[in-house]
Amino acid sequence: MKRSSITRKLQLLAIAIYCAGILGACSTQTTEAEKALTAGTSSSKELPVIEAELTAPPLVPAPITRKHPAKVVVRLEVTEVVQKLADGVDYTFWTFGGSVPGKFIRIRQNDEVEFHLMNHPDSKNPHNIDLHAVTGPGGGAASTFTAPGHETVFSFKALNPGLYVYHCATAPVGMHIANGMYGLILVEPEEGLPKVDKEYYVMQGDFYTKGGFGDAGLQPFDMGKALDENPTYVVFNGSVGALNGDNALTAKTGETVRLFVGNGGPNLVSSFHVIGEIFDKVYSEGGSKTNLNVQTTLVPAGGSAITEFKADVPGTYILVDHSIFRAFNKGALGMLKVEGPEYKDIYSGQIMDKVYLPEGATIQEMPLAKAPTAPVAANKDQRLALGKAVFVQNCQACHQAEGQGIKGAFPPLAKSDYLNADVDRSIGVIAHGLEGQIKVNGELYNSTMPKLKLTDEEIANVMTFILNNWGNKGGEVTTQQVAKAKASNKH
Ligand SMILES: [Cu+2]
């Protein structure tokens, strides 16, 4: 009895030593990286270390009161989640911290930021982050390419004060941003920002869905609409109504309100306006220069503005993108409810309403849209030329210029055993999209290929182009073959 228990203990000990050995070997890389991190930021040794408080919109972390720089540790987790885009409409958002826009980060000029980017193991795609507050290549993008289930770390010094956008910059960049991968980081000037009563976080973004505005269900991303810069939705804080009704921003009369406004795009610039208010002060483009008495401020895609005003009279103030169809027909509308006593000398309310029709009523007509006609290939040479154009516009961002793909993220189309083994199956992939695990040239891929809005003719052309390039097996795919393959390869 005793001897066997001793043997077991010895075995466990041996295993423990063995494991420690392996761990030591495996973790050298991390230790080296950590050493480099502290070595590179020599002054960080003297700086106090602070864990950053991050907030989901429309909330903002408390103003910074410290009078000295610090080493601020930021931990941001990327998740891919299905959430509401509008009533009855869901969308698979890719997020920085579970919300769109992502978590608000607040630091002070000359802080040293140790930035951790975690990509949740359930994610289907790799992601990274480009913070416009960073001085350095790619704003951090090159140092933070993070596969699902991984964490990357880099550090930067916040040299310039201002309100900065951050976003994902993984290919195809437009698609990652269109799926909600953006947020704001505020670098407070050393002297801080003037005190106000209320601070809020509002960020605009445009969304592209297969279905029209309000079409119910889980809506996939529409690459065609994104390329045309023709969004189905334009919203504040990630969904239609995110700042309406019970979710409205609030203030009391007499309070000063500061809005940190960002625009993730990916495409539109915003004409940000609050109906019934005048911005007493705007930090134009999120920089240090202020403009006074502004009605509408331009917020570029990938840019910001800080607007401030005093809530003088009670009522509901409507936040809009003053490109006004976006507000009333695509969702770019939010609310600020101001409660408190009335000041009739500033705003009287309605005094009179009577009919005035000098020219009689008119009926407006909507112009009819003309359907464009796409070119049709007459022979294989034309098919190759047209197919190349389809590839460059629709596929290259992911599968790369020579069809070589990106290991672990986008499978190769060059010399692809998967593609050459079954052309009809690949036509199905292009027509219907693909999700789940596949093996291409011995490598596993478990990601998402979006459904693209292509005609049968375009699929025939791009498939013919791919088959006749990069060491693939050749041949011609016709529109008829595409129609047949599509029907038999639904998954
Ligand atoms: Cu991303």
TrEMBL record:
Domain Cytochrome c per the UniProt entry, residue ranges: 382-470
Organism, by scientific name, is: Pontibacter akesuensis
UniProt key word Metal-binding: yes
Q: Report the EC code(s) recorded for this entry.
A: 1.7.2.1
Q: Which reaction does it catalyse?
A: nitric oxide + Fe(III)-[cytochrome c] + H2O = Fe(II)-[cytochrome c] + nitrite + 2 H(+)
Which family does the record claim for this protein?
Belongs to the multicopper oxidase family.
Which superkingdom does the taxonomy of this entry point to? Bacteria
One GO molecular function term of this record is: copper ion binding
Binding positions for Cu cation per the UniProt entry: 127, 132, 167-168, 176, 181, 322
Q: Membrane-crossing residues?
A: none
> What sort of enzyme, by top EC class, is this?
oxidoreductase
Q: Where is the signal peptide?
A: 1-25
Which cofactors, if any, are listed as required?
Cu(+); Cu(2+)
The record's listing under InterPro entries reads: Cu-oxidase-like_N (IPR011707), Cu-oxidase_C (IPR011706), Cupredoxin (IPR008972), Cyt_c-like_dom (IPR009056), Cyt_c-like_dom_sf (IPR036909), Cytochrome_c-type_DH (IPR051459), NO2-reductase_Cu (IPR001287)
Assembly and interactions?
A: Homotrimer.
State the organism's lineage.
Bacteria, Pseudomonadati, Bacteroidota, Cytophagia, Cytophagales
Q: What is this protein called?
A: Copper-containing nitrite reductase
Q: Name one Pfam family in it.
A: Cu-oxidase_3
Alphabetically sorted, this entry's keywords are: Copper, Heme, Iron, Metal-binding, Oxidoreductase, Repeat, Signal
